Amino acid sequence: MTRPASPAASPAHNLLGLELLRFACAISVLVWHYNHFYVVGSAHVGFEVTQQPLYALLKPFYEAGWLGVQAFWALSGFIFFWKYAQPVSQGQVSAWRFAVLRFSRLYPLHLLTLLAVAGLAWWYRQLQGSDYVYQYNDWPHFALQLAMASDWAGRSEWSFNGPIWSISIEVLVYALFFVLCKLGLTRWWQALGLVGLAALVYALKLTPHPIVLCVFFFYLGALTHLAHEALLKRPRGQQHAVLALGLLAVAAGTALVASGKLRPMFYVALLTPVALLVLLDWVQPTSPAAVHWINKLGNTTYASYLLHFPLQLLLACLSSALSWHWPLHEPVWLLAYLLTVFGLASLVYQAVEMPAQTWLRQRLDKR
Q1: pTM across the whole model
Q2: For the purposes of burial, counting CB atoms within 10 Å of the CB of 305, is it exposed (0-12), middle (13-18) or buried (19 or more)?
Q3: What is the per-residue pLDDT across 105-147, written as a single tens digit (0 to 9) for each?
């Protein structure tokens, strides 16, 4: 996902709240993947989820942090409808320009981390005689990874830098989004129809392909954007009433999911739109320093998502080669892991992502 930067954006359309939600989703995925530190080859050794550092505080992330991916998809839907829906439908953004914008944002870091993981995977295989976590590290899967098409077939054959799977699926939904916008299908009832269709396919188990959930959450985010636009036109009293109802629904959902009566997936489908609307309303900082740091946190999310597994693989190689044992149950280790990932992500965003994005756009976006 990219942070919106539109000269047409008005002060009332401040999206800084989205940056905080993106950051929370990134932490969710990183904590969920903390279990990788216990992997030897493809098997967990000595992992007990309830014994992990700060478990009482981070229990939702340890137990269901993978759902941060679904929330990311909804965030993408919100941002894409805000930034691209009307320009694409009105012919202001061509297919080539749209593809260049997406490619230049996503591919450079994907390629860098793919090559890093390929090299580290070879080293780990020499040390352990097997692969680490993701087992399909062969040439056919490498070719799919190069094309950012690792999960287009819907298989669960995760390979190399495994977390890229969700981006590969989202790329397909980007294409669907562009086509539907070109056809003028950008109204709320059309987005609702896509959400309903995806929900029906998922409920009836017509296909296990992850694109179904991606479409559902992406267009759920689109609906949230349209709802937000509508709310901005209403009196503040009505806006507050809607947000209050949303928070009550989340409170009820929290009680239901805690008692096991509501699946976490459905809870995230409720929580994410409400969180979007509430954060957009509440996060309106006037301090330039606060704006700077919130943007900085949001900018780390894509890099943190792609960097955390290579870092874990590097540590697994060092542990195996030097017989080091990490203090995995210590909160300081968890905090050091998170700080290292986000610190690296911040550096990579400035030194790699943005320069590569600018370079590619200057050379490809000439139409």
Answers
A1: 0.93
A2: buried
A3: 999 999 999 999 999 999 999 999 999 999 999 999 999 999 9
Contact indicator for 305, 26 with CB cutoff of 8 Å: yes
Contacts of 308 (CB under 8 A, 6+ apart): 29, 30, 33, 163, 341
Give CA–CA dist 12/111, Å, rounded. 37
CB 303 within 8 A of CB 348: yes
Q: Which two tokens stand for residue 145?
A: 């990874």
Query: Amino acid identity of 183?
Result: L
CA neighbours closer than 13 Å in the CB half-sphere of residue 7: 0
Measured distance CA(163)–CA(308) in Å, rounded: 9
| Radius of gyration, CA atoms only, the chain | 21
Q: How far apart are CA 162 and CA 169, in angstroms?
A: 13
- Tell me the C-alpha distance between 316 and 132, whole Å: 8
Q: Cα–Cα distance between 191 and 308 in angstroms, integer?
A: 34
195-217: per-residue pLDDT in tens? 999 999 999 999 999 999 999 99
The dihedrals phi and psi of 60, each to the nearest 5 degrees, come to: -60, -35
Length of the chain in residues, anyone? 367
Amino acid at the residue 261:
K
The DSSP output letter for 290 is H
List beta partners, residue 44.
Answer: 39
DSSP letter (8 states) at residue 129: S
Coil, strand or helix at 156: coil
**Rounded-to-integer distance, Cα 367 and Cα 365, Å:** 6
Q: Comparing C-alpha atoms, which of 211, 200, 196, 217 is closest to residue 81?
A: 217
